[in-house]
Amino acid sequence: MLQSIEARTGNAVGERWAESTPSEIDAAVAAAASAADAFAATSASRRAGLLRGLASVLEAERESLVALADRETGLGLPRLNGELDRSTFQLRGFADVLEGGGAHTVIDDKAVAGAPPSGRPRLTRVRVPLGPVAMFSASNFPFAFSVLGGDTASALGAGCPVVVKAHPAHPELSRRTAALALRVIAAQGLPVGVFQFVQGGSIDVGVALVKATAIAAVAFTGSFKGGTALARIAGERARPIPFFGELGSVNPLVVLPAALEKNGVELAGTLAQSICVGAGQFCTSPGVILVLQDAAGDAFVQALAAALRDLKPHAMLSATIRATFERGVAQWRNASRLKPLVDDAGDASAAAPRPFLAETLAADFIDDHALHEEVFGCAALVVRVASIDEAVEVLKAIGGSLTVTLWGADQDAEPTRRLVRTAMQVAGRVLFSGVPTGVAVTAAQHHGGPFPASTQPFTTSVGYAAMDRFLRPVALQDAPAWLLDRQGVPA
Amino acid sequence: MLQSIEARTGNAVGERWAESTPSEIDAAVAAAASAADAFAATSASRRAGLLRGLASVLEAERESLVALADRETGLGLPRLNGELDRSTFQLRGFADVLEGGGAHTVIDDKAVAGAPPSGRPRLTRVRVPLGPVAMFSASNFPFAFSVLGGDTASALGAGCPVVVKAHPAHPELSRRTAALALRVIAAQGLPVGVFQFVQGGSIDVGVALVKATAIAAVAFTGSFKGGTALARIAGERARPIPFFGELGSVNPLVVLPAALEKNGVELAGTLAQSICVGAGQFCTSPGVILVLQDAAGDAFVQALAAALRDLKPHAMLSATIRATFERGVAQWRNASRLKPLVDDAGDASAAAPRPFLAETLAADFIDDHALHEEVFGCAALVVRVASIDEAVEVLKAIGGSLTVTLWGADQDAEPTRRLVRTAMQVAGRVLFSGVPTGVAVTAAQHHGGPFPASTQPFTTSVGYAAMDRFLRPVALQDAPAWLLDRQGVPA
Fold first, then answer.
1. Which residues form the Aldehyde dehydrogenase domain (chains A, B) (predicted)?
2. Which residues of B touch A432 (CB under 8 A)?
3. pLDDT in tens, B427-476
């Protein structure tokens, strides 16, 4: 059963309702499949119109949606208004890309007379929508990574119907948002199968969706455990399908001496804020801080601990997420080679957690694989390194992350260059200033990275390249004029 | 043990030698890993020089290589000379792309002042080489899909060291080619780890390679069975890696009335040749021929059968492949709802097979999943369809193929449009004239397609986009001037 829960109090609000039954899931998938051909054949500008319509309805209903989101997630009105802005910006950004022709980049190689290999037929490379996409909403961004978030926007933009699996941590907001989406789709005269919606707190709903024969791809943002389990199911289907999973990350941040010389205390404050923003419930939350073992490093760690001690994170998204955080921190607390620096257990049963920070040495961190796993929430590990080369080894041990942040790499020098090279091997995004929390929606963005950050490290779930996940290349050989014309290619 | 076998006679030639031991495989992977950083840092023009050097050495040694390939594969001198031409064209084509800057396409989004979502930091999207690639050679193209074929060329072009797993059906040619490659690498002053070589007839060698921790991706061309088994292993690693597998295909070809009106008999002859070229040992060999149930269709099928009966395919690549073909044909021969049209068993133990053609009805084909599987060799099924819409259903049942060929789709009409749309959903390449055997090396080419044609349908193993498989995007946020400079981006 589903139930809307007030995040700050744990109180149930309103009625309980049933999760989607197997036959409802089948019907949702069947509706999406039956709409796929017609939707694939729509023009880019028609799909742009759909995305703009969805953005408009979110804005029109802003007040009630944000209030409801706040009740169910506890993330606060300023953040949630900003997140709604980001979602409408994203929907309109994809619309801009579609209107600019970006979804259908074509390579047209004219025929060359003569024998192969230099002689060739005409080959025209186009892209076709994959088909119905199963979209798994995340708990931590009730707008930007949920029902009408980036995955839905990019799949619809590509011409793929979407079957949304709502996140049970904000069920009422999800069904309200879905109802608005269906209103827009009806008003625009599109088939209802373009947008379908299922709900469920149990694993069965997601599994049924990933196994459904007509589903052509899965977009997922969530936990390592859930994501890898579903990815395996997607791979074991009679016809495996792409599973675009963003599974979170420890987001190492390396503090080099050059950064501390300038403004170490200020940076410590900035970092503490980034660790605790949204109660640490960001995929890009910095979880491993690499600091040199020197006096400036000691001072920075002290300043970071002091800044963190002063912060009061707000309530977490749900009691389950809160309990998982507490378990993660308890593991760190009991790890023999970790020294807690900030550890005010407070009331472990309260919805709002207390920040946690501990310190360890590079060699101990590298040895203990359990420490490489994300603790989702306002907790971080400081890893003290003897040298930049040891920092390189720590990054290599982590292996895959959405982001790596390097503070103080402004000057070209050999060890820095090695560090940058390693960061680029390990991460989908490498930052040289600022904090990793906050992901700009733009063409150059890449929100992905080597496993476990992403199950498909070549793809991004944020930014305009996100649409590439749902458009498969096809080469047309000696295509007739009428077909080229329909693809917008001069005959 | 490995042994060079004369394809036409089955006779052993020369010494036997041992397959690579686990420690030799480890050493090859370790050498590749140790070369990865330095090779990734080479300039595109340096890598272009390597590819040109490899092309030159193939040409310089053409006579002996082609003679050896002919002995081990039985494919004949004209075809093998052509295939060597294609391989050198391919190596030089990738070199051209590198010199034109195509491997390092950059998107540079300048910073925008103001609050998010419209305000943003500077984001520069670049691409980085993945790291060591395990490359599995195919049996059927001893140059173009083997040691220095397209996978090796594209991985080296991308800046990834390659560990080649030779195909045991042409072991002597493989080790000779590898020795030439190593000579070029030494002459160009590149680390020996850039190109490593392992050999083995047993499954263990390939499994060890896919499991090796330092391997970052696998490129594979081969059987469905071997490919899906290795893909699973790649996905079950502690850190899963991309498995770019091209697993072959039934390559449906649809003959529409408009094509038969013009030149049905000539087309039947062309198709027969395509079914038998290289004894049918092409990934793109047409294996399912869809023909309408009308008089023109009957005449076409008769002409196709007659043309096939006259053909004498050459010896197959190996006794194993020959025996597998015989088993596949036997299954078809015994299928109750298939009517054999061309079935001269000949001497089932001879190296050269006899063409096989059978006919069935669409409904029977759709029902029997065993018929959707490729029989590798000069065999095809004619599927008679009552209408174009029934042809659509047959294509949907096949589901994934490297190619679909549509003859007679020159005019825009509603059922044709549905057929074209379905073909584009099912295939990586859709042809409107000619035959699918023969894959041009060009920017627009796409040699892939929905599963089982490819395990990564967004990628191609032929054409210049093949390099994309080995270059992962990374977004640099507020990158320092020195780094942008190294990436060739104006600060």
1. 15-412
2. 476-480, 483
3. 999 999 999 999 999 999 999 999 999 999 999 999 999 999 999 999 99
Residue with tokens 């997922």: A220
- Class for domain A2-247+454-486, per CATH? alpha beta
State pLDDT tens for residues A203-237.
999 999 999 999 999 999 999 999 999 999 999 99
DSSP assignments along B55-117, one per residue: HHHHHHTHHHHHHHHHHHH---HHHHHHHHHHHHHHHHHHHHHHHTTGGG--EEE--B-SSTT
**CB < 8 Å to A468, chain B:** 458
Neighbours of B125 (CB within 10 A): 22
Euclidean distance between CA atoms B255 and B274, whole angstroms: 14
Amino acid at B278: G
Nearest Cα neighbor of B357 from B331, B329, B376 is B329
Output Rg (C-alpha) for chain A, integer angstroms.
24
Q: Which two tokens stand for residue B298?
A: 């009957």
Candidates A476, A478, A487, partner chain B, best to mutate (most B CBs within 10 A):
A476
Strands B401-407, B252-255: pairing is parallel
Residue of A nearest to B405 (CA): A477
Domains A2-247+454-486 and A253-431 share a fold: no
* CATH class of residue range B252-431: alpha beta
Put the strands of the sheet holding B471-477 in their side by side order.
A339-343, A356-361, A379-385, A288-292, A253-255, A401-407, A427-431, B471-477, B123-129, B107-109
CATH of A253-431, one of 3.40.50.1360, 3.40.309.10, 3.40.1280.10, 3.60.40.10: 3.40.309.10
Question: What distance in Å separates the CA atoms of residue A367 and residue A364, rounded to the nearest whole number?
Answer: 5
Q: What is the DSSP letter of B214?
A: T
With 0-12 CB in 10 A as exposed, 13-18 as middle and 19+ as buried, what is A231? buried
Q: What is the pLDDT of residues B66-88, one digit of tens each?
A: 999 999 999 999 999 999 999 99
Q: How far is B117 from chain A (nearest CA, A)?
A: 5
Q: Which amino acids of A are annotated catalytic? A: 246, 283
d(CA B434, CA A121): 9
